[in-house]
Specification:
Layout lengths: L23 H33 L3 H30 L2
Length: about 90
């Protein structure tokens, strides 16, 4: 069964939220935060992939360290997205 919906890769180019009538300076700051959030998420994903490989070969200690690092990277991503949304709303 083929997917009829367009698939969008999660990259900084298309992680643009509807900004509306916000000053250009604020849009730029939001975009930078969104891009950093995506970068943190990508780093987290890479760390989890490496952790999985390490786990499969029995290097449990390093796998656990990378998994914890990935958690921290995801927290950074969530915090940056939250900041971008708050700045957008004027909080």
């Amino acid at each position: 069964m083929a997917c009829t919906l367009p698939c969008i890769a999660l990259t900084p180019k298309n992680v643009l939220f509807s900004i509306g009538r916000v000053p250009l300076e604020m849009q730029s700051e939001e975009l930078m935060m969104q891009q950093r959030a995506v970068q943190a998420l990508e780093e987290s994903t890479r760390s989890l992939e490496v952790a999985d490989q390490l786990f499969r070969v029995g290097n449990y200690r390093e796998a656990e360290r990378l998994r914890n690092e990935a958690r921290e990277q995801r927290k950074v991503s969530v915090r940056l997205l939250s900041q971008a949304l708050h700045s957008r709303r004027g909080h």
